[in-house]
Amino acid sequence: MPDVTKTPAASDTVLTSDETVAANVPAVPATGKPRSLWSDAWQQLRRNPLFVISALLIVLLLVMAIVPTLFTSVDPRSGDLTNHFMSKPEWGHVFSPEWFGYDKQGRSIYARVIYGARASISVGVLVTLAVTILGGLIGMLAGYYGGWIDSVLSRFTDIFFGIPFFLGAMVILTSFTDRELWVVAGSMAFLGWTQIARVMRGSVITTKQSDYVTAARALGAGTGRILFRHILPNAIAPVIVVATIALGGYIAAEATLSYLGLGLADPTISWGIDISDAKDALRDAPHVMFFPAGMLCLTVLAFIMLGDAVRDALDPKLR
């Protein structure tokens, strides 16, 4: 009988079970290391127009706050009463003292808008750092230890959470005669850490149940090492998102308190102070309020946009 045995062709190669499993395994990157959450988030942020636009705006605002002399050489406190609401915005004189016009004391609005970024952004950054450290520490301890420690810290947080933010800040600030930058920032941080604490507590409760935390504990790692080497890096992402968005809110809160006469005061230059000074001339010279208010809105919007972009990058469910 003829031999019916068929020799397999190249395209009909039969794989063994081990070869089949290997063929279904995704290719490993050339570096041999899988990308971490942060590197993966950075790759997504770089492709997000929302992040790019907000980051460029924030960099510009930070440069404006740190080195205002790059944008103007005019003294923002120097006024000439002959310019009392006489000069309207001169759009053709870019970066000149009269570009945005003058206020009721004859001071350059453009110069005051540039220098006002320093105080407003400084308060926002200081408050955000303070509430992140304080709230993050309280939330991390409450979430990790649980039990009576969690109960005590949670009730302590609820007490502060029940205090209206602006009402409490106004009560604290009225007790100070000299409301300097650190006083305003401290009073806001004293009342604003509760949200961060709650977010951190929930994130730590979820993270501490992970296998790598259990393995670290079984290998004899101390509490400090587990908290700061294993739990904190993996639980901080939601806190960063909340803190970034809240930073814009704190800048707006400082402007609100300054507008009410309870925040920063002269000789400090702040957008809130300029908005308050311009309210009486809103009908006759609306440009005096428009420019500091516009810069305030732009700054708050930039930080909110940055927070939204970071949230989208760090949350796998939104990808």
UniProtKB/TrEMBL annotation:
GO terms under biological process: transmembrane transport
ABC transmembrane type-1 domain segment(s): 117-307
Lineage top rank: taxon: Bacteria
Membrane association type: Multi-pass membrane protein
Gene Ontology CC: plasma membrane
Transmembrane residue ranges: 50-71, 121-144, 156-176, 182-200, 235-253, 289-310
Keywords assigned: Cell membrane, Membrane, Transmembrane, Transmembrane helix, Transport
Chief place of localization: membrane
Subcellular location: Cell membrane
InterPro entries for this protein: BP-dependent_transpt_permease (IPR050366), MetI-like (IPR000515), MetI-like_sf (IPR035906), OppC_N (IPR025966)
Pfam families the UniProt entry points to: BPD_transp_1, OppC_N
Annotated family: Belongs to the binding-protein-dependent transport system permease family.
Protein name (record): Oligopeptide transport system permease protein
Record organism: Streptomyces netropsis (Streptoverticillium netropsis)
